[in-house]
Write a structure and sequence with these properties.
The chain contains 16 helices and no strands. It has 300 residues and is mostly helical. Helices cover 73% and strands 0% of the residues. Helix 3 (64-77) packs antiparallel against helix 4. The chain has helices at 30-43, 48-60, 64-77, 82-94, 98-111, 116-128, 132-145, 150-162, 166-179, 184-196, 201-212, 217-230, 233-246, 251-265, 268-281, 286-299. The chain has a domain at 11-23 and 30-113: Serine Threonine Protein Phosphatase 5, Tetratricopeptide repeat (Alpha Horseshoe). It is elongated.
Length: 300
């Protein structure tokens, strides 16, 4: 029976700097700001600055399609505005249009080829496109000038993992944990690397990640699976139940609880119930189907 560990996606690790949002003015509500911008644009429909401001506000509010319309209008009026090109990249990335986001960054690079924000965003978007060699070139250009750039260091480490170079990945990720001891994603990723080798350091790194982010169900799952693989079944059970309290729809957690009941406790009836719970969430889960049948056969 094979279980797979997953790394938290970079977007969930807050590494998606392509989706940065500006903080609103705390003295004015968003609704008032939006109303003022609407009035201003009604009076001056070709004011690129007002359109870009409304695009940023709409983006902050999660209204990305409206934001995309406004930022496109702004750039039609002022096509070489670097901050607005970066904002357009953010908006279209959030809207799932990676190609348009990348084109906006290319335009920004033509205007400001040495701008670190532009280079970092290009490194990010090529990372998401799995163009790892190109991404590494962009990210290395950032770290040459900013050796402690957290986002660039972390992404480079992640790329080395994807390329199978775990030695360099560990070096870079340890740099991140040393320099940024409150950055949970780096601890989590290192923990998963060590867990795959059943290295005791896994518990230390995953434990730190969990302290920094107690509700991260991905960290809880990986820590539970690590203990399960070591035969620490009671600890694993406790962690799986902790996970299910946060996310009752984790089919993997239900399945693994069933596996522990069947293999460790010998309670095939309860195991079958847990497998049923997993299948109710994911009817195509092959491990749960197979193990449920095995538990029922042993029960009979």
């Amino acid at each position: 029976m094979k279980h797979t560990r997953t790394y938290t996606l970079l977007a969930l690790l807050t590494l998606a700097a392509a989706c940065r949002q500006q903080q609103p003015d705390g003295n004015v509500s968003d609704s008032v700001r939006l109303e003022l911008l609407d009035r201003g644009i009604d009076r001056n429909p070709d004011d690129a600055k007002l359109l870009a401001s409304r695009a940023q506000l709409l983006f902050n509010l999660g209204r990305v399609k409206e934001a995309a319309y406004d930022i496109n209008r702004s750039l039609q009026i002022d096509p070489d505005n670097l901050p607005n090109l970066l904002l357009k990249s953010d908006i279209f990335f959030a809207n799932g249009n990676i190609e348009e986001s990348f084109r906006s960054l290319e335009a920004a690079e033509r205007i400001a080829p040495d701008n670190l924000d532009v280079i970092l965003k290009l490194g990010e978007i090529t990372f998401y496109g799995r163009d790892y060699d190109r991404s590494l070139r962009y990210l290395s250009s950032v770290t040459e000038r900013e050796p402690n750039n957290r986002a660039a260091l972390f992404m480079k480490g992640f790329i080395y993992i994807e390329k199978g170079d775990t030695a360099n990945a560990v070096i870079l990720l340890r740099q991140v944990t040393d320099k940024f001891p409150d950055y949970a994603p780096a601890f989590e990723t290192l923990g998963v690397l060590y867990a795959n080798r059943l290295n005791p350091l896994a518990a230390e790194y995953l434990g730190t990640a969990l302290q920094l982010d107690p509700n991260n169900t991905n960290v809880i799952y990986n820590l539970a699976k690590y203990h399960q693989d070591l035969g620490n079944y009671e600890t694993a059970e406790s962690l799986y139940r902790q996970l299910l309290a946060l996310n009752p729809n984790s089919a993997d957690a239900w399945h693994n609880l069933g596996w522990i009941q069947m293999v460790h406790h010998g309670d095939n009836t309860l195991a079958a119930q847990y497998f049923d719970s997993a299948l109710a969430i994911d009817p195509a889960m092959q491990n749960a189907l197979t193990n449920r049948q095995l538990a029922l056969e042993q029960t009979k």
